[in-house]
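thought: user wants a sequence for this fold. calling inverse folding tool.
action: design(structure=
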């Protein structure tokens, strides 16, 4: 089976590194023109140039609704429309409940959830008009099962799942599909800070006995963005080596 995205354009938030970068590479590898997004214009341009000659870098802080709306408009202008939106940018600000500050709550919810809402609202109009669209939101298994010290993060990822299902129902009649990919523990900067003992303990909870790679997530996202996934919407796909069953 060949995943062909020739002629499609995609915007991937948080794609200067990590999972988002692998997703941008996979979509570009399947023939899509890709918008690479990070907070810094230089880093975004550098990543875009490394990914594909047809990729374009955009600077945007997804926690800022106005910037997100402007980002979608810029991508639509650059590509002549937007077919695929991947909300991947995300942050953590972990602490146990009683030490979580309002700021920690707001920063995580603004970046992880409100940013996705704003980009979907902005991109959906064009997708509906063209009767084709793919929205893929990167949540986390933590949004399904919770995690000590991550009440804000878990709430943002659970919120993303509710947002996706609602959007899937609202937009289905226009052939705009929305799905969630929920990774387990993936080797990126986000997890690099873990102590070796913690990583070892974690791996023992994973039936496949290893942390995932960004590529483990990217292949599924490319499939969901393609015509092979034309009858799939409102679903949550867990990619975690079997950790949560
Ligand atoms: P990284 O921290 O490795 O990379 C985060 C990316 O998001 C970078 O490209 C960064 O770009 C960008 N970014 C961060 N904040 C913002 C912002 N406010 N506006 C725009 N871009 C932003 O993260 P991962 O690759 O590990 O995670 C990607 C997604 O996958 C996140 O949503 C995360 O919650 C989720 N996830 C990750 C897991 C893991 O184990 N790694 C597990 C489950 C889910 P720059 O610094 O250039 O701005």
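)
observation: tool returned 245 residues.
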């Amino acid at each position: 089976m060949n995943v062909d995205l020739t002629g499609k354009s995609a915007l991937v938030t948080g794609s200067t590194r990590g999972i988002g970068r692998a997703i941008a590479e996979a979509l570009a590898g399947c023939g899509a023109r890709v918008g690479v997004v990070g907070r810094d214009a230089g880093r975004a341009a550098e990543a875009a140039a490394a990914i594909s000659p047809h990729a374009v870098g955009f600077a945007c802080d997804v926690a800022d609704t106005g910037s997100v709306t402007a980002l979608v408009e810029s991508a639509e202008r650059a590509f002549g429309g937007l077919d695929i939106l991947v909300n991947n940018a995300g942050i953590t600000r972990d602490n146990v409940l009683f030490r979580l500050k309002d700021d920690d709550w707001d920063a995580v919810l603004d970046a992880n959830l409100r940013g996705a809402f704003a980009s979907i609202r902005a991109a959906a109009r064009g997708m509906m008009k063209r009767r084709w669209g793919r929205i893929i939101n990167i949540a986390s298994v933590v949004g399904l099962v919770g995690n000590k010290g991550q009440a804000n993060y878990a709430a943002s990822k659970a919120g993303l799942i509710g947002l996706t299902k609602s959007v899937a129902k609202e937009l289905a009649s226009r052939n705009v599909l929305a799905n969630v990919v929920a990774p387990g523990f993936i080797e990126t900067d986000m997890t690099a800070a873990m102590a070796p003992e913690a990583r070892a303990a974690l791996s023992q909870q994973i039936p496949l006995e290893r942390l995932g790679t960004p590529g483990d997530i990217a292949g599924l996202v490319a499939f969901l963005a393609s015509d092979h996934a034309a009858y799939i919407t409102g679903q949550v796909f867990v990619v975690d080596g079997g950790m949560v069953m």
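thought: summarizing for user.
answer: Here is the designed sequence. The chain has one domain: 9-235.
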